[in-house]
Specification:
With about 160 residues, this protein is mostly helical. It has two domains: about 120 residues, Methane Monooxygenase Hydroxylase, Chain G, domain 1; about 30 residues, no CATH class. It contains five helices and no strands. Helix 1 runs parallel beside helix 4. The longest helix is centred in the last third of the chain and has 43 residues. The radius of gyration is 25 Å and the shape is elongated.
Length: about 160
């Protein structure tokens, strides 16, 4: 493999990371809208892109190690080391790839943290709603542990008050 091959793999990785950022933003919009119907689909799309990124990262690791060996670098050289030792315009190209990947990783981290926060707040709100309905344990049983039917009238009254 040559430097061009490594650069092409890095371009593919950047494209996938941008797609991941888009999918995370899509997931965030679903979370913020409260339309949970599509949340599983959005999450599955994020997971699919993450799997593809893992495959490309493996390709990159193999290619970088091969090129690194040609340049006399140690095993698994970093992009910074590759940029410092590559001849001609390749050093600048690899440094640009490195910077773009770092920027994308920071954006992805921020978006993922925001999504986790939205999910946490949603779970807390659901728990509080169940508690307000008198379901302290989070279970929506209509029977007590002894098999006695719960008072359906009181439960309906609480639901009406909550609405």
């Amino acid at each position: 493999m040559g430097l061009s091959d490594v650069s092409n793999i890095l371009w593919r990785e950047r494209q996938l990371m941008e797609l991941l950022l888009f999918k995370l933003e899509e997931e965030q919009l679903v979370l913020a809208s409260g339309r949970d119907r599509w949340l599983a689909h959005a999450t599955r799309e994020v997971e699919t892109v993450l799997q593809e990124i893992k495959h490309v990262e493996l390709d990159r690791a193999v290619a970088v190690e091969s090129v690194g060996a040609d340049l006399g670098l140690t095993e698994s050289p970093s992009l910074r080391a590759l940029a410092e030792h590559a001849a001609g315009p390749w050093g600048r190209i690899f440094e640009e790839h490195r910077k773009a990947l770092l920027d994308l990783a920071a954006e992805i981290d921020t978006m993922a943290a925001a999504n986790r926060d939205l999910l946490t707040r949603g779970a807390i709100a659901a728990r509080e709603a169940l508690v307000a309905l008198g379901d302290v344990d989070g279970a929506t049983d209509t029977y007590t542990p002894r098999g006695i039917e719960r008072d359906a009238v009181n439960r309906i009254g609480l639901i009406n008050e909550a609405i």
